[in-house]
Amino acid sequence: MPQRPFRFGVQVRNGDDAASWVTNARRYEELGYAVVTMPDHFDEQLAPIPALQAVADATSTIRVGALVFDNDYKHPVVLAKELATIDVLSGGRLDIGLGAGWMATDYERSG
């Protein structure tokens, strides 16, 4: 079995504004992080799809993804299309995590 290098990532939730979000993304890349991920929750955080696209647009090597996208919040076809778009626009730098939701507050907030 071929060996893969060990990678480090950073999990983020919020940015104060667009400029700081982009600045932080570039800094993570400069520091050598391999991936920026976000949770998929309905609390006080940025929405992961547009926020991750902004990270991908601001960087050239760092991968982006969510830990994890909850399969109950979006229709699977819509989510697949949005994720495929990020992957194309980022040059193939999307990492996908999918799973069942577990936070009761997310279900309460999303109806």
Describe this structure in words.
This protein has 4 helices and 6 strands. The protein is an alpha/beta fold. A 4-stranded parallel β-sheet has the order 1-2-3-5, covered by helices on one side. Strands 4-6 form a two-stranded parallel sheet. The protein has one domain. Helix 1 (18-30) crosses helix 2. Helices cover 41% and strands 15% of the residues.
Give a summary of the structure in a few sentences.
The chain has one domain. 41% of the residues lie in helices and 15% in strands.
N-to-C span: 45 Å
If you compute it from the alpha carbons, what radius of gyration comes out, rounded to the nearest whole angstrom? Answer: 14 Å
User: What is the N-to-C succession of helices and strands?
Assistant: EHEHEEHEEH
Q: Tell me the overall shape.
A: globular
- How many distinct domains? 1
**Secondary structure: helix percent:** 40-55%
| Sheet with most strands | 4 strands, parallel
Based on secondary structure, the structural category is alpha/beta
Give the assembly state of these chains.
Answer: single chain
Total DSSP helices = 4
Beta-strand content? 15-25%
Query: Could you give the count of β-strands?
Result: 6
Q: What number is the mean pLDDT? A: 91
Strand order of the largest sheet: 1-2-3-5
- Unreliable residue runs: none
Index terms:
single chain, 111 residues, four-stranded parallel β-sheet, 6 strands, two-stranded parallel sheet, alpha/beta, 41% helix
